[in-house]
Write a structure and sequence with these properties.
Number of strands of chain B: 10
Shape of chain A: globular
CATH topology of the largest domain in chain B: Alpha-Beta Plaits
Strand content of chain B: 35-45%
Strand content of chain A: 15-25%
CATH architecture of the largest domain in chain B: 2-Layer Sandwich
Shape of chain B: elongated
Strand order of the largest sheet of chain A: 3-2-4-5-7-6
Structural class of chain A: alpha/beta
Radius of gyration of chain A: 24 Å
Largest sheet of chain A: 6 strands, parallel
Order of helices and strands of chain B: EHEEHEEHEEHEEEH
Helix content of chain B: 25-40%
Largest sheet of chain B: 5 strands, antiparallel
Distance between the termini of chain B: 44 Å
Helix content of chain A: 25-40%
Oligomer: heterodimer
Largest interface: A-B, 38 and 38 residues
Chain lengths: ~575, ~180
């Protein structure tokens, strides 16, 4: 299908051909030609209030649907405002395509008005990027961008298009294939690696499934369930993998890492075999790397060969798509277990003891004020297992990872790798667009909320009725926690006074949302139920919580997982545990 | 730490040098030298990268480089199995009194004089790093005024070529339903 049109129409035709149904963006000078055909396109364009919102919304949409999220911005500041969400998407392997306008090709390099070298700026944290100055290249670049973003290890791709390339006449010709001589993601795992993995598993008496976000990206939760039940070994799900395995399942020990459960952290630490599936040995999981799981052999399955051996040596590396990898491992392991089934009784006795002795918990404030963990726990319970939660970054994020029970993949969204404050509101907006019939909560901090709440206006005007729970402890809570623990309580610049200013319910109302407030434990359920009943408008609830609550357990940064603390100055009683 | 030489075939596209250089800088890998130029195929450039890393880190460098979409092929070049050369241009002080001595050094290293005037001689030499280093040390006595050196370039011995292994590139078909529909599962 070749058709004469200008570059802008060619861009929109290419996006339609790529299957895009929604994009988030803001027009401006250099991208303006593209907005003319967007006006007539069947693609839904959601006009956001800040380009960062467009990027995170595209991420939320992608995380919930598994499709490529699309955002669009103009040159210069429009493009640089996308930098944070692109870096965020790169760290969390989110398939994103960002389209930016660029100054006319003759002006590139002259420091023209609103010129920024966005291709140069985004090289380190895009999977690939393009600068297009010839309109004939637009369809090919878009086809390649979607292919690269969504295949292999997903990631963001930026296509920067000079204004004159959008204006010039060209012929639209959607390619039937893409030719990328340097790009060959390996989906099918080596069968020898699968055999080696199965053999190693049968020799292990303390195996653990160390499950990362890759399981969710690969839509491999069902396969993981089969594999885990086949072996009957403990499962831990990282921050990015919450929901990949049901929290209610008996094999699940919870989240490992800096704020993981004692059982999950210790399971990794004392294991003799880490069956690593789509995880990357991040420092927040391993603690001090040289002391991490020192007696464990490692099976490491990942679609990205560069992750294997990056932080931890892999005894059995498996490069491939996790769905295929796990599916191949199941029959191989079944056969191997028929000959030699390891006895995990003693291992489970230890883990079950840790799980029951050190469950996640919190103390309610003695003054009767609201406990943030309680609020989050009730949000999870009342909203049910189908609800989607997007968190910002900080204490509320960790509590949302700990105290909401996740039963299904793609119900938990957060900024795990980059740790982007302000992620929650726009990500929830994108998630709601991708899953309009599902309850979507942003669990946000009062600090995070003040970074990106302008997108509530977008939500109100575009019929995107998200719900926002502000866990308002009037502080940059996680930083304050570190100041409490490591800086002698010297609270330098962490007090936000957000119980005084701004008035969050009024702010919400000003943006066309319903604003609610809650500060007594006995009102929590009724307030959440009230918010749940509002489905034609965004709702913001200001939960005014106790200021000094801390996230526990905790492995302090740079220390060993062996140093896990269950409360301030309180380590687990290891002597009573036979490990 | 050991010195390794990588031969990297890349698409001859804008920005590819910046991508490779940026990767090295971002991941804190140190480059000793980098030489880049065209190959027998006009669509492909070849980089020769010399770097100082441990074995484990080398594997990471190769895998990270391989993630760059414009990087087509990477191979480690083993010194014993390859021909390696650097190019040197060096300007030394030379007068009529010591010109013979300079010429003797030039001859000893199979170098050549490419320019001269009353007070200086410019010498061009090619060869392996050790030879270039020896030449420079022999020239020091005359006074080195200026020098410029290329990075190392290297080619495997024998009849095979890196590009033989890579360039049968087939297009990856994309379905009518659009890329979106095709690659999510």
């Amino acid at each position: 299908m070749s058709k004469k049109m200008n570059g802008a129409s060619s861009l929109v035709a290419a996006l339609e051909s790529a299957g895009v149904d929604v994009m988030f963006g803001i027009p401006g000078g250099a991208i303006l030609p593209a907005y003319d055909p967007i006006f007539d396109s069947k693609i839904r364009h959601i006009l956001v209030r800040h380009e960062q919102g467009a990027g995170h919304a595209a991420t939320g949409y992608a995380q919930v649907t598994g499709r490529v999220g699309v955002c669009i911005a103009t040159s210069g500041p429009g493009a640089t405002n996308l930098v944070t969400p692109l870096a965020d998407a790169a760290m969390d392997s989110v398939p994103l395509v960002a389209i930016t306008g660029q100054v006319p090709s003759a002006a590139i390099g002259t420091d023209a008005f609103q010129e920024a070298d966005i291709r140069g700026i985004t090289m380190p944290f895009t999977k690939h990027n393009y600068l297009i100055t010839d309109p004939a290249e637009i369809p090919r670049a878009i086809a390649e961008a979607f292919y690269i973003a969504s295949s292999g290890r997903p990631g963001p791709v930026l296509v920067d298009i000079a204004k004159d390339a959008l204006q010039k006449d060209t012929v639209f010709d959607w390619p039937t294939s893409v030719s990328l001589p340097g790009y060959h993601p390996q989906a099918k795992p080596e069968s020898s690696a699968i055999r080696d993995a199965a053999a190693l598993i049968t020799q292990s008496s303390k195996p653990v499934f160390y499950v990362g976000g890759g399981v969710i990206k690969a839509n491999a939760a069902r396969e993981l369930m089969q594999l885990a039940e086949l072996l009957g070994a403990p499962v831990v799900t990282t921050l990015m993998a919450r929901g990949a395995f049901p929290d209610s399942h008996d094999l699940h020990l919870g989240m490992p890492g800096m704020h993981g459960t004692v059982a999950a952290v210790t399971a990794l630490q004392k294991s003799d075999l880490l069956i690593t599936l789509g995880a990357r040995f991040d420092d927040r999981v391993t603690g001090k790397l040289s002391t991490f799981a020192v007696n464990a052999k490692v099976i490491h399955a990942d679609i990205d060969p560069a992750e294997i051996g990056k932080n931890r040596y892999a005894d059995v590396p498996i490069v491939g798509d996790l769905k295929q990898t796990i599916a191949a491992l199941i029959p191989e392991l079944k056969a191997a277990l028929a000959k030699n089934k390891p006895d995990l009784t003693e291992w489970w006795r230890q883990m079950a003891s840790l799980r029951s002795t050190y469950p996640l918990g919190y103390n309610k404030p003695e003054d009767g004020s609201l406990s943030p963990q309680f609020v989050i726990e009730r949000l999870g319970k009342i909203s049910g297992p189908d609800a989607i939660f997007a968190a910002g970054v900080g204490q509320h994020q960790m509590w949302a990872a700990q105290f909401v029970s996740y039963e299904k993949p793609r119900t938990w969204l957060n900024s795990g790798g980059l740790g982007t404050m302000g992620y929650a509101v726009p990500a929830a907006m994108g998630a709601k667009v991708g899953a309009p019939d599902t309850t979507v909560w942003a669990i946000d901090g009062d600090g995070c909320f003040q970074m990106t709440n302008q997108e509530l206006t977008t939500c109100a005007l575009n019929n995107i009725p998200i719900k926002v729970a502000i866990i308002n402890n009037e502080s940059l809570g996680m930083v304050r926690q570190w100041q409490t623990l490591f800086y002698e309580g010297r609270y330098s610049n962490t007090s936000l006074d957000s119980k005084r200013v701004p008035n969050f319910p009024m702010l919400a109302e000003a943006m066309g949302c319903i604003g609610l407030s809650c500060e007594r434990p006995e009102d929590v359920d009724a307030t959440i139920e009230k918010a749940m009943a509002i489905n034609n408008q965004p709702v913001v609830v200001d939960f005014r919580v106790h200021r000094d609550a801390m996230v526990w357990p905790m492995v302090a940064a740079g220390t060993s997982n062996d140093e896990i603390m269950i409360a301030r100055d309180l380590a687990p009683d290891w002597d009573s545990q036979e490990l | 730490m050991a010195t390794h030489t990588l031969a990297v075939l890349v698409e001859n596209s804008p920005g590819v040098l910046a991508r490779v250089a940026g990767l090295f800088s971002r991941r804190a890998y140190n480059i000793d030298s980098l030489a880049v130029g065209p190959t027998e195929n006009p669509n492909i450039s070849r980089m020769t990268i010399v770097l100082n890393v441990e074995g484990h880190a080398l594997e990471q460098v190769i895998r990270q480089l391989d993630k760059l979409v414009n990087v087509i092929q990477i191979a480690e070049v083993i010194p014993d199995e390859s021909v390696q050369a650097e190019l040197l241009l060096v300007k030394v002080s030379a007068t009529t009194r010591n010109r013979f001595d300079v010429d003797a050094v030039v001859e000893k290293y199979d170098a050549k004089v490419v320019d001269s005037d009353a007070s200086s001689v410019t010498i061009e030499a090619t060869g392996e790093a050790a030879k270039i280093a020896d030449l420079l040390s022999d020239l020091e006595q005359f006074g080195i005024r200026e020098l410029v050196q290329s990075g190392l370039i290297a080619l495997e011995r024998g009849g095979t070529s890196l590009s033989d292994r890579t360039l049968s590139t087939q297009g990856i078909p994309i379905a009518d339903g659009g890329v979106q529909a095709d690659y999510q599962n």
